[in-house]
Amino acid sequence: MVTKPHGESQAAPALGQAVLRGSFWMLVNTVVTRGVSLLATIVLGRLLDDHAWGIYGLAMSAATIVGTLRDGGVRQLLIQRPAEYESLIGPVFWLATAFNVACGAALGLAGPLVARATGEPQVAALLWVIAASLPLGTPGVILQARLAMQLRFKAVGLVQCSSGVVRFGGAMALASAGVGPMSFVLPLIACALLEWAMAWWLVREGPWARKAEVGRWRGMLAGTLWIMLGSLGIALLNWGSSLAVKPFVPTEVVGAYFFAFQIVVQVGILLSSNLNAVLFPALARLVNEPDRLAAAAARALRQVMLLAAPMSVGLAVTFPALEQLFFAGKKSNSVLAVLIQGATYAFAVMLAVPLSVQQARGRFRSWAIGLVSTAGAGLAAAATGAWLHGTPEGIAAWSGGATAVTGLGYALVVLKRIGVPRRVSVASSIPAWVGSLVCGALAWSLDTHLAAAPIPMQAMPLPASWQAPMSQALRCVLVGACFAVSYAVLARVFLRAHVQEAVAVLPARLRPLVEGVMRTRTIAP
Hints:
Blueprint: H1 8-47, H2 50-67, H3 74-80, H4 85-118, H5 122-136, H6 138-149, H7 153-176, H8 187-203, H9 217-222, H10 225-239, H11 241-245, H12 251-283, H13 290-327, H14 335-344, H15 346-350, H16 352-360, H17 364-388, H18 392-416, H19 422-452, H20 464-494, H21 496-503, H22 511-518
Helix pairs in contact: 1-7, 1-12, 2-4, 2-5, 2-10, 2-12, 3-4, 3-6, 4-5, 5-8, 6-8, 7-8, 10-17, 12-13, 12-14, 12-16, 12-18, 13-14, 13-19, 13-20, 13-21, 14-18, 16-18, 17-18, 18-19, 19-20
């Protein structure tokens, strides 16, 4: 039996509330960022063709390989050891800076080589801009780690939200000005400087004023090598597929698949990054309380799937109408890929839970090996799909299937090791996903009917040029409403306990309204 330190009983509820409120504020702030990101994807999808998207995808895939060394992995080390902050902050900052300068230099030198290997000269210029942004981003990253350690998630969300608005707003402005593929990366410089300034203003600390203590770097690196390897796994999961499929398909197919993935990945960026930012530092405080750690992990798994499954499937089934509304058929070759990826992407989001558990426990070796193995399986599947089919949907089918299998398997193994039975993990994840697929099939059936028999708009007092877009907009609303209502009913009936837990995250003023709509009561965390 673990004996709680004095005051632990009072601290536990406070920590639980901090996690829940942190999750909420991170979600609210990131909704703004993802909204701007989705708008940017639409605008850039209209302004830039599949070839330009393919160039961006290739550049980001190459950048992830060098980016594995970014920060030297010491950011996670800093968060995982909150009691040692004062002694670690100086060497952590300067070690991260040294690594980021080295990464930038390596990426800059690699630019011409990658351009020659892919046959796309523009890739080099994109890599040079990304390289310049790496060292500039160091202060912002380290200072945000300090905010996370203090459980100031609202402040972290504010910084990330502001950076996202600058990045995606800048990309849209540059693309409109005819800058081309460079529009994707030029705003990264401004984002790095903005995050530095905002994080400093919120923390009011200057880690660059601390001593570097170079003599401690070797010992710190011994604890971060696995972190860097794990970072490679994360990067390859998110960005590596473009280089994996390029040997088998033209750049245009790479661009079509990459565009489809960018549509679906909005859900992952909205949820998983915020979950990791909240769960990692919070769970790190529970490592000496196995029962609470297991309960918190199981609860997080339920909440992730309750949100991720309907969000990814719902986005997928409404995309055919969205494509017609915003792109008028220009991105039709990405539609099937979005549908397939959306059906399985919730399992990629779910990885945030076991990953946060491993990081909190300091099990970076297992974390890294698991991530690289998962990423390797996904890349091999994507390459197989490209080789066998040569189409965006073929790539999506193979990579999506691999994501579902490896994501669920990873969660089962990791959570079992902290005392969560496999049956509990399955019961926490599968029902929401299956329910989302059922509701998605219903909405897709409606969309198929509406696509075959478009809604007549002639009777409405609209200009002729507006009738087709309004018809597609109404199609999107009807399909989305069909999915949302059917999922709400299904969740209320079959996932009642999950919904009750989710309502507990909401602010006190909003909670009664949601309880009334869903006709349920809150389960205290």
